[in-house]
């Protein structure tokens, strides 16, 4: 993706390659932070993590050093503004998209009277027909039809930029999607159908970021360290599965796992495997400060043991993906590349934790799409706390 390009189209662009699972291992000293969201002042382009992320953004987003620095500053502001307006507007909030070309945050509203509030707060308002809540409701009704890859459906979910639910189907299966919309009884005007040539898949058996071993049978990536272990992808192991560090010196147990449905897991580490506040990157450790959610259109970076540190853009949230192993809901779609061995690893927007790798399509030679499970629902579900520094 070029620096001045807003965003690629959702699932079709993403599913055009082979998926990857990513992973980051935290290293260094740490302090505690509460699990749900960030209670730490957001880092700027002058933060300790800035040079690490900016180098990867220059490489992957085709930016100059100055463009990367400016974009980080503007995204920092947009992230705060997005969270502020989400709370302030309530039901009128219809989602938001960051435009990397203009560095502006566009906030959709379903009530035209709310547009002025958005403008006064410093964002660009857009009055839409459906908005985030209605699109999520439409996606839920589509999902209630119990469809999957066998029906030619690769995935579906809201696209805030289009104000539509996008259904991605395998080539030649458009009629299946049209029938799905009819059976769900949803407004066809709120749905767009796209085709892809490749199925999404998982990569639990290959390492990513700083790897960990799964009961001697495979490898996944450590996600974000918590006060007593770490979060990762649910498909990396069922509850009760023994895991260990790559060198065998540390051990732990999967104490919570959900897959399919969600793709979230949590590991409790034994003594000798100490959680920290950092994750690895090609340029050195990156310190985690919290988990404030970034808006669509914002840049995002991830690390994996197979493919290293790569950056791209948040394309859409609340996506449902039809893996051969089952349906997973609530994923975030990105245009970041990845490859087998990256499952479970960390995603960061500056110093804010975003999620753990689920799967996708494509590779880091031709590009592709990768989906991640947002981190805050994992922290809330299992009552664990991020380690922050």
From TrEMBL:
<feature type="region of interest" description="Disordered">
    <location>
        <begin position="238"/>
        <end position="259"/>
    </location>
</feature>
<feature type="compositionally biased region" description="Low complexity">
    <location>
        <begin position="243"/>
        <end position="258"/>
    </location>
</feature>
<feature type="active site" description="Charge relay system">
    <location>
        <position position="263"/>
    </location>
</feature>
<dbReference type="InterPro" id="IPR043504">
    <property type="entry name" value="Peptidase_S1_PA_chymotrypsin"/>
</dbReference>
<feature type="region of interest" description="Disordered">
    <location>
        <begin position="271"/>
        <end position="303"/>
    </location>
</feature>
<feature type="disulfide bond">
    <location>
        <begin position="301"/>
        <end position="311"/>
    </location>
</feature>
<protein>
    <submittedName>
        <fullName>Streptogrisin C</fullName>
    </submittedName>
</protein>
<feature type="disulfide bond">
    <location>
        <begin position="337"/>
        <end position="364"/>
    </location>
</feature>
<feature type="disulfide bond">
    <location>
        <begin position="220"/>
        <end position="236"/>
    </location>
</feature>
<dbReference type="InterPro" id="IPR001254">
    <property type="entry name" value="Trypsin_dom"/>
</dbReference>
<dbReference type="InterPro" id="IPR009003">
    <property type="entry name" value="Peptidase_S1_PA"/>
</dbReference>
<keyword id="KW-1015">Disulfide bond</keyword>
<dbReference type="GO" id="GO:0005576">
    <property type="term" value="C:extracellular region"/>
</dbReference>
<dbReference type="GO" id="GO:0004252">
    <property type="term" value="F:serine-type endopeptidase activity"/>
</dbReference>
<dbReference type="GO" id="GO:0006508">
    <property type="term" value="P:proteolysis"/>
</dbReference>
<feature type="active site" description="Charge relay system">
    <location>
        <position position="343"/>
    </location>
</feature>
<feature type="domain" description="Peptidase S1">
    <location>
        <begin position="224"/>
        <end position="379"/>
    </location>
</feature>
<comment type="similarity">
    <text>Belongs to the peptidase S1 family.</text>
</comment>
<keyword id="KW-0378">Hydrolase</keyword>
<keyword id="KW-0645">Protease</keyword>
<dbReference type="InterPro" id="IPR035070">
    <property type="entry name" value="Streptogrisin_prodomain"/>
</dbReference>
<dbReference type="InterPro" id="IPR001316">
    <property type="entry name" value="Pept_S1A_streptogrisin"/>
</dbReference>
<dbReference type="Pfam" id="PF00089">
    <property type="entry name" value="Trypsin"/>
</dbReference>
<keyword id="KW-0720">Serine protease</keyword>
<feature type="active site" description="Charge relay system">
    <location>
        <position position="235"/>
    </location>
</feature>
